């Protein structure tokens, strides 16, 4: 398993804001991209804030954000995140519908956050498509747009359109976009930075955890057991699962074995400690479950392409 491959390609994001937008939703959508840049130590994503007419747009909690007019600038990019949040029904006027239809030709993917699916539906962008919306509005959305396949999923991603519900699902959708563009391991590293999925709940087969849920719980346990790594059979036992089931879920979600993911988590913690602390390489090896420093250095080089000292020298 290799670390993120460096690329000259920078993905461009637009964020379309409206008065009284949710800054919680905005942060959850954009912060994973900022973290991706920081972890990769290169610009993978860049973004600009837009509104219908430009100027200062203020969130529901009073946060002002300077924007430029989406219609005047007519930007192009990979994603346009649309964040209406509150008062969405009044926002879906003919002018906004025209704006969104035009944006569809300039951005590879339109992303409706929170109640963004309502604006997409009014603009005729979701007919015959699958979509979700904030669950408080789900029934009204389903009844108002019978030609749309409304689903109670946390997010829906298709080739050129994506929708999700509230702020927490915005974070999950962004992580999934990053995972698809880069790797499962890279997305897991970003999630760990925000302690997303770190709540440890032991797996119970009778509850029929989803693949996502079991993998989240397994990786949370892995992060708690870095210095003394658990054998995979013991990891499965503590999750009240069995090794075969655990391996099947990891293959389905991450296309990797649990042991490969565990190794990646340990080595990314080693890289973090190399970059951010003055601990010796020997002590970092111990903290990350390697009793032999040379073995850790070999594994580190295999994972990231360079020895630990190269990461320390750039501090």
Order of helices and strands: EHEEEHEHHEHEHEEEHHHHHHHHH
Number of domains: 2
Q: In percent terms, what proportion of residues is strand? A: 15-25%
Sheet having the most strands: 8 strands, mixed
* Helix content range: 40-55%
The multimeric state of the shown protein is single chain
CATH class of the largest domain: Alpha Beta
- CATH fold group of the largest domain: Rossmann fold
Q: Tell me, what's the shape?
A: globular
The CATH homologous superfamily of the largest domain: Class I glutamine amidotransferase (GATase) domain
Average pLDDT for all residues: 89
Radius of gyration: 22 Å
Question: In CATH terms, what is the architecture of the largest domain?
Answer: 3-Layer(aba) Sandwich
Low-confidence stretches: 202-207
InterPro entries: Class_I_gatase-like (IPR029062), DJ-1/PfpI (IPR002818), Homeodomain-like_sf (IPR009057), HTH_AraC (IPR018060), INH-QAR (IPR052158)
Protein name: Carnitine catabolism transcriptional activator
GO molecular function: DNA-binding transcription factor activity; sequence-specific DNA binding
Pfam families: DJ-1_PfpI (PF01965), HTH_18 (PF12833)
